[in-house]
Amino acid sequence: MVFRNTDLPVLFHRTDTIAIARQREAIGATRSQLLLLVLGAALAALPSSLRLGSTFQLAGALSALAYAGVLVLSYRSSRHRAKSHWQLNRSAAEFIKSMCWRYAVHGAPFDSRCTDPDGLFTTRLEEGLRELAKVGWQDPRTNDQEAAAGDLLTTPMRRLRAKPFSIRKETYVRDRLIEQRNWYHRRTEISRRATTLWSFSIGLLTLLALLLAMLRTFSVAESVDMAGLLSAAAAACLAWSEIRRHQPLIAAHSLVEEDLAAMHTAMETTITDVEWPSAVYETERIVSPQHTDWLVRHRS
Q1: Phi/psi of residue 151, each to 5°?
Q2: What's the CA gap between 257 and 273, in Å, rounded?
Q3: Which of 166, 153, 164 is nearest to 101 (CA)?
């Protein structure tokens, strides 16, 4: 049996879509601000001889517009709170996904001994979503009729739950554990490449700024404006790298991948039907965004 994201309830898909949209908005706003700051510095470094008329300096006006654009984007970001909504909706989507998997494969607390797994699933899910709502999460079911009418327990979830232990284990290991393990591996490689790229860029820009500063020190060249531009570009690269958290994510994702590899081995060799509910619960804890954030904070 195959169990994919398409088999999850409509509420998950709505929340996941919102999280992706808010992530793009937040990252796009930050990228635009950094680019405008570098553009403003570049325009300010242009010769003052570029004028319209006797007093109006075109480069200075464009530089001022770039800096004004940064202020406008900062104000919009503070109003829209895209980053906060991105993180809250991502937490909600992953929470829903985790609960669905636990229910479908008899993970704790929805093990085989549970007398009313459907009722317990709905209760636990709504309780968790209410906790997220307390810190600002906006339930899409409020304004989305399709999400409000969608069943939290889908037919594929019920069908998988009804399967014997061997099929549930095979499906969970293949479609959840291995899928997540591969995802963390891919993200680690992407972060490594990004770290190399941005470290090289920062080093090169800083080296060029140092060279120009040394030339100016010995009166070989008047390059203070260009050195300032290179410094601004290096600072923007550094800020972008820190915002994306590539370096701490490498360590965090590697640790999660190692834990999933150990859990994979245990599930294939030693874990029995009795131990299965707690093993699924532990796996879902490992792949939760909260666990990754905890590792990032402690590995930074």
Answers
A1: -80, 135
A2: 24
A3: 153
Residue 157 to residues 4, 6, 99, 101, 124, Cα–Cα distance (Å): 10, 11, 11, 8, 16
For position 215, what pLDDT does the model report?
79
Q: Say which DSSP state 152 is in.
A: S
Scan for tokens 């993180």, then name that residue: 87
Tokens of 43: 């325009």
Q: What are the counts of helices (DSSP H) followed by strands (DSSP E) for the chain? A: 12, 2
pLDDT digits 0-9 by tens, 230-277? 888 999 999 999 899 888 899 999 999 999 999 999 999 999 999 999
- What is each CA distance from 88 to 30, 99, 283, in whole angstroms? 19, 16, 21
The DSSP H or E segment spanning 51 is: strand 51-52
Residues 6+ apart with CB under 8 A from 118: 153
pTM comes to 0.90
Where are the domains positioned within the chain? 1-163, 164-300
The type of residue at 206 is T
CA distances (Å), origin 198, targets 161, 227, 228, 244: 46, 19, 19, 11
- What are the structure tokens assigned to 56, written together? 């109006």
Tokens of 140: 């899409």
